[in-house]
Amino acid sequence: MAKIKLLYHYLTTHFSKLCLFPVMVLVASKASSVNQENFQYLRYHLQHNLVPLTILFSVLSIGSAFHFLSRPRSVYLVDYSCHLPPAYQKITVQKIIDNVKKNQEMNQSMRSLDEGLDEGSSLNFVFRVLERSGLGDETYVPEAILNVPPLQTMAAAREETETIIFDAIDNLLANTKVNTRDIGIIIVNSSMFNPTPSLSAMVVNKYKLRSNIKSFSLGGMGCSAGIIAIDLAKDLLQVHKNTYALVVSTENLSRSMYIGSNRSMLLSNCLFRVGGAAILLSNKSSDRRRSKYKLLHTVRTHTGADDRSYGCVQQEDDEKGITGISLTKDITSVAARTITKNIATLELFDDKIKHYVPDFKRAIDHFCIHAGGRALIDELEKNLGLSPMHVEASRSTLHRFGNTSSSSIWYELAYTEAKGRMKKGNKAWQIALGSGFKCNSAVWVALRNVEPSVNSPWEQCVDKYPVKLEL
Length: 471
Known about the structure:
single chain, alpha+beta, nine-stranded mixed beta sheet
C-alpha cells in the first residue's frame, strides 16, 4: 500500500513532465526523417509569412521577459549567529531550587503555601519538572534572574535583550563583512518584551542603519515567531531589489518570570532559558556563492479559531493577581493537530494527499524541531515517524541551552553543522510551534558542504553530544 501511495504521489507531482515526454519523442522521430525538400518548403513559407512570424516572435519575447521579471526572487541565507551567554550565567537544577527557596522565604504570600519539599508543594513540582525536562546543568538564565529576589525592572529587561541581540548581530557582521548601510530590512521578534522605542528601532540606533530601512517588530507571537519573521523577510525581498534583510529572534525572561505558585505557570520558568539568533538574508544573485542555504518553502498554519488551541498557551493573572504564562495539558495534542495541518500544505508532498503522514525522511535530510520540551519532541518524533537520530539536534539543544523560544531552531541548525552533517544539496526542515496556536515551518537547501561559523555556540561542547538521559 505504501508503494502505491508513493507511485500515486510521483505521478501527480510529475504529471506535466510525463505528458511532455511523448511529445518530445514524436518531435524527435519527425526530425530524423527531414530531407532537403522539407527544408526548401519551410524556407518558402518563412519568406511569405514574415509579418505573422514577427508578431509571434515579439509576443513570445515579451512573454518570456515578463515571466523572467515576475518570477520569485531567490532568497539566500548568507549566514546566521547564535548568542552564547557568558559562563557566569549558567545555572544548574540545584541552583534553581536554591533560588526558588530563597525567593519563597522572601515572599510572605508564598511562604504560607510552601514549606519545604513536601509532595504537594510548588517547589517539589518545580523539582520534578526539572528532573524530567531534558534540560542539563549548563543552560543559561539572565543575570537579573540570578539575583534574589529577581530584578524585573524595565532597565534589567532592556539590558538582557540588548546583550543578546547586540552580541548575535556583532558576530554575524564580523563573519559576513556586510556593511550595515547595505541592510534594507530589519525584523526583530520578541514575544514578551516590547518596549518603546521598539526593539527594531533599538537595532537601527545601535548600528546606525539607513533612514529608509523597512523596520518591523513582532510581539506576542510566541516561539514560532522566528519563522514568521523569515516569511515576512522573504515577501519583502520579493519587492525590494538587491538588498539584505536582517532578522533577529529572541525572548526576554527578566520581565516574564513568574513568581507565584500556580503550577501551569511555573512550567515556563522550568523550561525557558536565555538565547537569541541573528540571521542575514539576501536576494542578490551575487551572494549565492558565499551563502549557506537557499530558502525553498515557508508554511504558516494558525489554528486560533479553535478555543482549545487559542487557550493552551496564554498570559494571564493567577488567583493572587500575579502575571505569568499558563501552559495547559492540551498543548501536546494541540501541537500534533496543528503540525498535521501544516504538513498538508507543505510543498514537499502533493497537497491532495491528506489522509496519511508521508515518509519525510525521503524528502528531508535534517530536522530542526522546536526544542519546546521533552514531551513535545517525543510527540513529534512519534507522529512524524522519525528516528532518534532525526531529533538528536532538538534533544541536544534542549539539554545544552533549554527552550530558547523562537531562536531554538537556529541552535539546532548550528548543531547539525557542528557535527559536520550538512552536505551540499541536503534539505533542512525547521519546525516551530507557538502560542495562538501556530505551527510555522521553513525548508532550506544547502548550497555547499556547510561548515560551522566562527564562534558557533557548539564550538566548545559539541563532542559531548548526544547525551543519554535517564528519565
